[in-house]
Design a protein that fits this description.
Layout (H helix, E strand, L loop, with lengths): L14 E6 L14 H16 L3 E6 L7 H6 L4 H24 L5 E5 L8 E2 L2 H9 L3 E5 L9 H12 L3 E6 L20 E2 L1 H6 L7 H9 L4 E5 L5 H6 L6 E3 L11
Parallel strand pairs: 1-2, 1-6, 2-5, 3-4, 3-5, 6-8, 7-9
Antiparallel strand pairs: 8-9
């Protein structure tokens, strides 16, 4: 792995937080973890880590369990959310295994203590791992019910001093309508945080967007299924939709 002390000259960011949905791990399946898909994701993370970019990851758990859906069926809300947090731990361990099979040194830190599986979340330790070139996966959300993994991603990004939050999705960026249902949907090249909130665009939940806005953390929303997009995003190329203000990434509207 390349020395993480300084990223290669052609990368825009030195330290990034990559947010993956649990559904991203399903691939063509309707549930669980698809081995080839998680292997492809590991390849893309390995690529940017090899460029010297310090990489932290937050993964959702929706491919295994969704707390809100369980709540709608009668499970107490906090209980459902804790179950969802455990699903994120399963996904985090699976991604760790996929990365380490490729020779990428990885640490999982859990907001819910479980010493046999992961380190406890300690901010200074996480930063030290990143400085040593290790990929750090933050599991179990914030450790609290009523907070999504989007909010956990925004919070952890701020805590570790990430320069950008990379929100990986299964569509090309942020649209003014659902592109799967509306062929005329228009993708935005760039949006302000307030536009996302006022237009209810569903990029991330309102708490996560507000946290990024208040701390001026840019968000890049892009299509994970297109090979090389994570590398393009860390290079500052015009991939997906930029939410926020960062002069070096400012793009003309399509």
């Amino acid at each position: 792995m390349a020395d993480s002390g300084s990223a290669a000259a052609h990368t825009r960011f030195r330290r990034v937080l990559l947010k993956l949905s649990g559904e991203a791990l399903m691939g063509p399946e309707s549930f669980g973890i698809h081995p080839a898909t998680i292997g492809d994701i590991a390849d893309q993370i390995q690529e940017i880590a090899g460029l010297g970019v310090q990489v932290a990851v937050v993964i959702g758990g929706g491919n295994i369990f969704r707390g809100l859906q369980a709540h709608a069926r009668g499970t107490e809300r906090a209980t459902g959310d804790y179950m969802g947090m455990l699903a994120t731990v399963m996904n985090s361990i699976a991604l760790q295994d996929a990365l380490e099979a490729k020779g990428v040194t990885t640490r999982v830190q859990s907001a819910i203590p479980m010493a046999a599986l992961a380190e406890p979340y300690i901010r200074r330790r996480a930063v030290r791992h990143l400085e040593k070139g290790r990929v750090v996966i933050f599991a179990a959300g914030t450790g609290n019910p009523y907070f999504t993994t989007d909010t956990a991603a925004a919070l952890r990004a701020m805590e570790i001093g990430a320069e950008v939050l990379l929100k990986a999705t299964r569509v090309d960026g942020v649209y003014d309508a659902d592109p799967a249902r509306n062929a005329g949907a228009r993708m935005f090249a760039q949006l302000s945080y307030d536009e996302v909130l006022q237009r209810h665009l569903g990029v991330m939940d309102a708490t996560a967007i507000s946290l990024c806005r208040d701390n001026r953390l840019p968000i890049v929303v892009f299509n994970l299924t297109q090979a090389g997009n994570i590398r393009r995003a860390v290079a500052g190329e015009a991939v997906g939709t930029l939410v926020g203000e960062l002069a070096a990434l400012a793009r003309p509207q399509a």
